[in-house]
Known about the structure:
By secondary structure, the protein is mainly α. The chain has two domains: 15-172, no CATH class; 183-235, no CATH class. It is 65% helix and 0% strand. It has helices at residues 4-52, 55-58, 68-82, 91-119, 131-134, 153-167, 184-207, 211-229. The longest helix has 49 residues, at 4-52.
Amino acid sequence: MMDGGNLLEKMAEPRSKSNNIRRKYSDVEKMVSEYKTLKSRETQVELMRLYKGYPILCHNSHEDFTNPTKRKQAYEMLLDEYKKFDKTATVAGMQHKLNCFKSAAKREKAKMQSLLLSVGRCEYEPPQWWYPYLSFLHPFEGEPRAPSPDYFYYRKAREEMEIEMKKHGLLPEDEDQSSSEQDPAKLAALNKYSAEALGKTIRHQIQELDYSQRGIAEKLIEDILFYAKMERLTQETVLQLEL
């Protein structure tokens, strides 16, 4: 005959197993959800990073901003770069995302300017996680804002999450690898266009500097390019200034 203690243990055992299974699936769902969030944010950050390199698209002061042919070409080149991170992207979808981000960033800037005019200072921080990445569109002439987060933050976090998920068999080993090779001719053209866009962006910024600051900036840029040619730069490389 089974005593009361053993009976209670037998009755509790199925419930305990059920709770463990429920907790296990809850953890898996949480992990998958967190991974999807990180991956989504990574692709959005990459889009904004690439977008900044095309002043013809994001600055209405650009000489070709009103040229529809050149803007169309720029969007197509931007799409080619962005597809490395989102293979399903289209020009229309990409433009929709950017327009939504730009409109929201413009509203946030208006809020900060209103506070600055009404109370003489602005302690408001936009709540959108992505706002610092687009602050270059609507620079705020108030108190210094926090610097943009590291562009590689979400990539690093996503890669760490992938390693953890692979341990649990939730991702194939080659999930994050490209399924096809880039066409060499297309890749060469893309690199050339990207370099030209970056060169124009730097040129516009250097022209705004005074003579002494311009000379120092050019020297630092030359040093960085030298180390890049020597393949001595890494994601952890930092430029340390003595103040």
